Amino acid sequence: MYTLTEARNRRLVLVDIENIVGGGISMATQVRAAQTAIEMVVSPRADDQLVLACGRFSVGIVGFEWAGPHRLRFRSGVDGADLELLDVLETEHVGERFAEVVLVSGDGIFAGTISRLAMTSGTEVTVVTRPDACSRRLRMAAKSVLHIDFDPSASMEAA
After folding, report:
1. Would you call 91 helix, strand, or coil by DSSP?
2. Cα–Cα distances in Å, from 52 out to 6, 93, 140, 147?
3. pLDDT single digits (tens) 64-115
4. Beta bridge partners of 125
5. How far apart are CA 57 and CA 36, in angstroms?
6. Most buried residue, 22, 47, 139, 150, by most Cβ within 10 Å?
């Protein structure tokens, strides 16, 4: 039987892939390199719910090239991917459904929402980011911050 307790023990992984890659995605090698780097730090679990977000010009390549089950959200605009992930965090009862959230991004736009989530529900939030790409506010809001070893220029050279 499925219970709320079982659901609450799951982990939600939210990935702003363009934040890790350093901009819009135009090549399959960028997606594969980012996925490999992220999985080395996040260590995927069988029952993780993974949500990828990107801008609308990256959606085709990200959606097809990311290996494994995932949900894909996209939006146009400078903060399109961020706004899609914020929508998930703010409207999908994350605190009631997940014991842990892993946010793969360094954008400060998430700081307030992450802080409220931890305070109101006790959900543990880990931020995974490139060391040079994490806002100070987000770093302070998260329970822990893990650094991802990803050089955006390396995936471009491999192509």
Report:
1. helix
2. 23, 18, 23, 19
3. 999 999 999 999 998 999 999 999 999 999 999 999 999 999 999 999 999 9
4. 101
5. 22
6. 150
Q: Which two tokens stand for residue 141?
A: 């809001």
pLDDT tier at 152, thresholds 50, 70, 90: confident
Task: Read off the amino acid at residue 77.
Answer: G
Q: Name residue, tokens 């990828």.
A: 52
Tell me 133's DSSP state: S
Amino acid 153: pLDDT: 79
Rounded to whole angstroms, the Cα distance separating 108 from 105 reads 9
Cα 147 to chain centroid, rounded: 13
Q: Which amino acid, residue 3?
A: T
Return phi, psi of residue 52, to 5°.
Answer: -100, 140
Residue in 68, 36, 37 with CA at minimum distance from that of residue 51: 68
The closest of 23, 106, 110, 103 to 58, measured between CA atoms, is 23
The tokens describing 81, both together, are 């991917």
pLDDT of residue 21: 94
Full-model pTM: 0.92
